[in-house]
Design goal:
- There is one protein chain.
- The longest helix is centred in the middle third of the chain and has 17 residues, at about 210-225.
- This protein has helices spanning about 5-10, 20-30, 35-50, 50-65, 90-100, 120-125, 135-145, 160-170, 175-190, 210-225, 250-260, 265-280, 290-300, 305-315, 350-360, 405-415; strands at about 80-85, 105-110, 150, 195-200, 230-240, 245, 335-340, 345-350, 375-380, 385-390, 395-400, 415-420, 430-435.
- It is of the alpha/beta class.
- It folds into three domains: about 5-50, Transferase, Pyrimidine Nucleoside Phosphorylase, Chain A, domain 3 (Up-down Bundle); about 80-325 and about 430-435, 3-Layer(aba) Sandwich (Pyrimidine Nucleoside Phosphorylase, Chain A, domain 2), CATH 3.40.1030; about 335-420, Pyrimidine nucleoside phosphorylase-like, C-terminal domain (Aldehyde Oxidoreductase, domain 3), CATH 3.90.1170.
- The protein binds uracil and calcium ion (CA).
- Uracil binds near residues 165, 179, 183 and 184.
Amino acid sequence: MLIQDIILKKRNGHPLSTEEIDFFVKGYTAGVIPDYQASALLMAVWFAQMNERETADLTRAIADSGEIVDLSTIDGVKIDKHSTGGVADTTTLITAPLAAACGGRVAKISGRGLGHTGGTIDKLESIPGLDPMLAMDDFIRVVSACGLAIISQSPNLVPADKLLYGLRDVTGTVDNVSLISSSIMSKKLAAGADVIVLDVKCGNGAFMRSVDQARTLAAMMASIGRQANKPTSVLITDMSQPLGQAVGNALEVEEAIQVLRGEVTGDLKRVALALAAEMLVAAGLSEGIDRAEARLEAALNNGDGLQRLQRMIELLGGDPRVCDDSALLPRAAETVMLKADRAGYLIDIDSVGIGQAAQLLGAGRATKDDTIDPAVGLEVKVRLGDRIEAGMPVAELHVNRRDHLEAAVEKVRGSLTVDDQIPRAPELIYARIRSREE
Ligand code: URA
Ligand code: CA
């Protein structure tokens, strides 16, 4: 087999065979196929597309490039949950403990944040003492003990994805449905869970700007799940504004805890419950979404969900008292309140801008090697469609270093648009797509 023949075949619009896809992924990972040929093939895929079978083959080949986690010693159906990335989206810290409280076994390998979106691992690391870098047998021990574990990705998982993503990033080949879905799903297949629940974000703060694009991606990932024999459910949810109020690591942990304590409701809670319900149904633990949501509400109200999170924090070495007293989380030296300069309605929030403001304050990374400050970030106090009065508080910045404060304030101001007409509020959950129909 020759890589130049494979490039030509795809360039001319033909589907590649399973063997050809394997040959490419193995050869590229081994360093036998050079970047220039891999780039040419990725660009050919970008133009000529891959069908569902090819995409599933590509996913499997990428997953098989490294270690495949074996969770078979954990009793019950193991569930994985993943979001394509949003702003103020701390659903995992709510969804996983609630699903665990209802009998789910949530085994999640998570990443760090880059750019305007946060990563669950960074959020967890803001908890004093907590170390998410667990060996596989400890991961399994924690899931068995408390029903959930969220740990950091080991370097042995999907090495081909890291290489391919790095190349896509610099060759204009990130935004292709087959390449995105195989990248995401390869990590899910390697992580070893039995069922997969995905949250595809849609809107100005997300990869997928339109519901149609999000649907296409969701359908492809469900198809990969079907072909790999892993039931996969996808919710398409709104990211045309930050999901919760808090953007920043310790701030987001605090907000998740407040939701689990029943102190905070709203869109973050609604999406978290919808995802957890999907997890229970996909795992066969509840019949139907309504029943699942009722069980999850009960687990929230009686404190079981919070207890699960608390236990996991303890088993990962963190201070479990943060669940009772958020003052034990890192706090910024000062807060700065931003006020509206005119009256009207909030007609637009630029979620990317809000994420970038938090990043400027030190909550996020511009490059992979940046260090982050767990205490800083901001709280957005208003939502799309809100009536705004001049002088009303709209955002609170949590600040340690003042060097980028001015720029962050400008970013937040530029991200909130107030005008006279009453806007239409966006839907929160656009669609539900499943790899198998009940
Ligand atoms: N997230 C991933 O993990 N991979 C992509 O290609 C895009 C988003
Ligand atoms: Ca607060």
